[in-house]
Amino acid sequence: MRIDLHTHSNASDGTQSPAEVVSSAAESGLDVVALTDHDTTAGWVEAAEAAAREGVALVRGIEVSCNYEGISIHLLGYLQDPTAPGLLEELERSRESREARAQSIVERLSRVVPLTWDDVLKQVEPGATVGRPHIADAMVAKGIVAERGEAFEKYLYDGSPFYESHYAPDPVTAVRLVRQAGGVAVMAHPFASARGIVVKDAVIEAMAAEGMAGLEVYHRDHSADGVQHGLDLAASLDLFVTGSSDYHGEGKPNLLGENTTDPVVLQQIEALAHGVKVLRP
Ligand code: AMP
Ligand code: FE
Ligand code: FE
Ligand code: ZN
Question: For ligand 1, is residue 257 a contact (CB within 6 Å)?
Answer without folding.
Answer: no
